[in-house]
Amino acid sequence: MNKSWNTLNREIISCRKCPRLAKYREQIAKEKRRAYRDWDYWGKPVPGFGDPNAHVILIGLAPGAHGSNRTGRMFTGDGSGNFLYPALYRAGFANQSTSHDVNDGMKLRDLFITAICRCAPPDNKPTPQEQANCAPYLERELELLKHARVVVALGRIAFDGYLRLLREQGHVIPRLEFKHSAVYILGNLLPTLICSYHPSRQNTQTGRLTAAMFDAVFQKAKANL
Fold this sequence. Notes:
The chain is an alpha/beta fold. The chain has a single domain (about 5-225), classed as Uracil-DNA Glycosylase, subunit E. It is built from eight helices and six strands. It has a six-stranded mixed β-sheet with strand order 1-3-2-4-6-5. It starts with a helix and ends with a helix. The mean pLDDT is about 95.
């Protein structure tokens, strides 16, 4: 990655704009989960991950307390990532199907993963102000991802947060409904927007989101390239 990416990622990692989130992520990193007591938790904001020349951008909610907040890489080390990365591998966006830590050799092809919030929030619920505090980082990533043609929003918060950012930039976008697998052509040379349920355990273990449903989302993303 170039100097602009390195500068942005350093700013993200050192961010303390949200006292509640800073306290929580660092507390989790000290207390740890029993299964990971030998880990040196990351415990900081998590920067984006993937191909800087990507045509597809994946936007999630926030790091998991014992996933990305532990490993330091988006969707790595928890149930959501264990569902996401096999799907990316099947679609040809990842070189392997498992992602456990930052040194596992995972590489993304033509896809970049980011999130609405960079710190693990209590109960996976960042406040509106915390989302607003983090929005400039996403905005700058989108500026650097000059080849993006498709955005996949994982979950309602990612969907709403991305559209809110576009509207704040001055884009006129009608009210859109969040529906799994919905595809929206936004115009104004903006990337096509595709919706997906978030690959949380709550969704995957109940069957609300199946592997076949998830695969169909990424096939739509490829078709829109």
